[in-house]
């Protein structure tokens, strides 16, 4: 039996309660750290520990190389997107406010009502489906588009004993006022946010309320006259699950459209746009059984990796019995898409090689954002993780060697992990023969999560055949990560043997458990299966607080 480094600081309590006051929110956006010189430690194969005091030029060089590659990817994706007939994702110029009618026959939420600039905005409700593990009862949401600024009022219809409210993510820096079970705030830019009423602001929140404040639409296709446009206007549309996507096609879901359907590409497709402000609903496919749902189709499924030039923008997906968006085309943009789903195996979104995943809201009970195919930028997203899966999944049995991921300026507002041992905000359970490498995570905020921050391993699992062999994890950087809460489980970094390691993993200015970490006190690091694990913080004490 090999010896492990078992370095863990036991939390005095399961969590630190985040004080939900206007002052706390106003001061919650961290400033960037001052950088080098750094102090900390490097942990190498065999258990050797070397103090670090100075710069970390090797790490900086890797980070610069990753961003150079992904910046080029952004330009390539934008050039391809510009060739789409309705592919402009630039915010429109008006009108100042667009509210969308509630579809006939779709019941309004019984938990909340909303006005925007004193006009009612329809509030939807999705009921929890996996009753054996879901700790929430439902999720309500409203959606609208605007320019300029708007005043939003959210009223808790069943309010009792409420004392105040807040808006997550903290980084939105939205101040609120509270009176008569109503939370009032002003929004001056598009943002997907959660409105939470004190004292019910910690996991689990029984009745979440989300506000999807979209930018004004741009490049909207015509309702008639273009044979390559499939247009769904306001109202309920029952189209089923076998809808085949075609090259050079635009699918548009207008605000107020409720489309009970799913789309699939039977082979490669090019130049496909799916956009709008409407809702794609998968509840009609839900069997009510976890195992049976694994045989159901995804909501948007483009699996052929030779596909090219895909845009999914603005729509909301709810009640998927399996995954929401699998878009494995090259040159893919997933922009301002909202997903809410309850079952295990309902991943949020995964994009193909050369992709931009931006400004989305993901509320899933499996992996929210999968980072599997490389040359990808993931930024400005907000994640509410349910009890299963991970907000950021780095690998799950990958057979290829994906590289160059830049994941930054994202918010995890909740992670409801409470029973699955290997859960974490940043997770790799890599059992495949590939070697995922060159991941740069930076400027990421985690608000309401208490289980574990990092779980990075090469390990076998029941879904993988060991005869296929193992790869490694290589060159991961976690820089300027701010977690507002304490964790009850140690971070784990572990390979499977001395040949298949987790190596060159860097934790730079990670703030968690009320401190900036510079050593492995909160980590379990296996010296027999890892190498070059660096944990450092800025020597000036700035961290990212």
TrEMBL record:
| Lyase in keyword set | no
Mark the transmembrane ranges.
none
Q: Signal sequence span per UniProt?
A: 1-33
Q: Which UniProt keywords apply?
A: Carbohydrate metabolism, Polysaccharide degradation, Repeat, Signal
Its domain of life? Bacteria
Q: Does the keyword Signal apply?
A: yes
Q: Supply one GO BP term.
A: polysaccharide catabolic process
- Protein name as catalogued: Uncharacterized protein
